[in-house]
Amino acid sequence: MGWIGETVDSVKSIQMRQLLTQAVSLGMIVTSALIIWKGLMCITGSESPVVVVLSGSMEPAFKRGDILFLHMSKDPIRAGEIVVFNIDGREIPIVHRVIKVHERQDTGEVDVLTKGDNNYGDDRLLYAQGQLYLQRHHIMGRAVGFLPYVGWVTIIMTEKPIIKYILIGALGLLVITSKD
Amino acid sequence: MHSFGYRLNGLLTFSVTILAIMCAIASLSDNLNSRSPSAEIQVMNINWFQKQPQANDEVSLTMNISADLQSLFTWNTKQLFIFVAAEYDTPKNSLNQVSLWDAIIPAKVHAKFWIHTSNKYRFVDQGKYLRGKKFNLTLHWHVMPKTGKMFADKIVLTGYSFPEEYR
Where is the Peptidase S24/S26A/S26B/S26C domain (chain A) (predicted)? Predict the structure, then answer.
């Protein structure tokens, strides 16, 4: 019975070390992805440097599933820029174009009105109750570039969360069963 | 080392990297384009000029807009978004920009055009400062690429002004 115990012990110890190594490599992958994301946030100056277009209100320029790269600088906001903003009380950011700018003489603060290219009317209906304009602090960034179709991955994972779980499960399985 | 999984992984990584490089090169090729756009806007008529009940000035005008923007199109251009904005300053605001009309030009053939139109969006001031004021009409354009960096520029046309009195 002694040598069975020995074999079982040695097998267990090898498994343990392999498992720990794989857990550490998985941790490294996850943290480096996080570092890249946070680094992008610093470089672009925006809270979310990449957004996915969710609605068709900016067609035919941006279709659902495109991703936009954002950048926020101290430059004043001018008409024609495509901005991403958050409305108080809504969690999903909106990507529309600025059509009206009123900048104060004394303080330099701006009132901004936006509209989606494909919408008939301006965004006053989307703003909070009684809000006529957006201010600078509502705006998260300006769109400076875009890639088509890449955002569909995120849309599918958000709308059918089961696919997210399947993917993560498969990834975990792959990590555990791979020999190195 | 030669299992299906490794090969698939290598293939996917390689193709994604190549696609990304191609998109970047396509975007960079837009910089080689030399641009020479031209535009002209005539205000044909001030239709009416009133004070709203909430005490903001509002004006409606009809314009003749003609432009030749064909040189802005490249092979990587999906469309051109153009709009005409009135820019002026008032004692209250150092800058006001009000978009009056916009259009999407989907192809190079449509980029040379002439249009007679009234303002698509209401021209409302923040205040009552428009009487007798001079303003600029600026034609802005945004080049939206098939992939990559977006460009924007404008032509400023000066010399327009509002009438001295409401009508």
Answer: 38-114
